[in-house]
Amino acid sequence: MADNTNLTTSQRNILKFDPKDHEIALSTEDLHVFYGKTEGISEGDLQFERYKISALIGPSGSGKSTYLRSLNRMNDRIATVKGKIMYRGLDINSNDIDVYEMRRHIGMVFQRPNPFAKSIYENIAFALRQRGMNKKQDLDEIVERSLRQAAMWDQVKDDLNKSALALSGGQQQRLCIARAIAIKPDILLLDEPASALDPVSTSQIEDTLLELKQNYTIIIVTHNMQQASRISDYTAFFNLGKVLEYAETGDIFTNPKVDLTNDYISGNFG
């Protein structure tokens, strides 16, 4: 196995978009993440195209989840994040950003389903009420729209008052996706959303994400190489806190330019 410790920038393969041809939803510049004195991310310059799915892959401890959580400031209380995270012309890593308002635009779904101990309906309506929306007709419309977009309306439309905790694991995860998109974010971050699910539920989540990319930019961390190859448009390979390769998914899986990328997707390490 090759060592990436001394790879120069020219030895990495990092896709850069031409803004004339590609609309950039989010980008990071000179991003570094520190846990105390330990550097979790030391090379993290990426651009994400709007209305595409970008997968972040790499071995455990490679920094992919640390990177993802930085994109909507989830690391603020546990790490020091330096560098720029650019969204709509703003550096959302700056101190004067309203983090809670920013997360309306950049939502997140975590590895394990975490529905509220409330009804299916209230799991979605709760956050809307917190933002001042109380008209039942408006709430009903958004609950239905969100559940339809998460491909579960037909399964639960007659049980909206049922506890979300009674749903299957796959249904709970899709409910969490519905909850995240209810406030109509621009970008959806997902940290291994299917890792705890069975193959049928995983397939349903993947189908949901493929539908959602019509309206959302999606960035997903996955340990599942087949999943990345099935659903993503672009793939970034992380190792030891560095992005070593970022390219169209077809190129990553059929013609990687970096030896370590080839080693990883071939199953030689990780």
From TrEMBL:
NCBIfam families: 3a0107s01c2 (TIGR00972). This is Phosphate ABC transporter ATP-binding protein PstB. It comes from Lactiplantibacillus nangangensis. It comes from the Bacteria. SUPFAM superfamilies: P-loop containing nucleoside triphosphate hydrolases. GO terms for molecular function: ATP binding. Pfam families: ABC_tran. Keywords: ATP-binding, Cell membrane, Membrane, Nucleotide-binding, Phosphate transport, Translocase, Transport. Residues 26-265 form the ABC transporter domain.
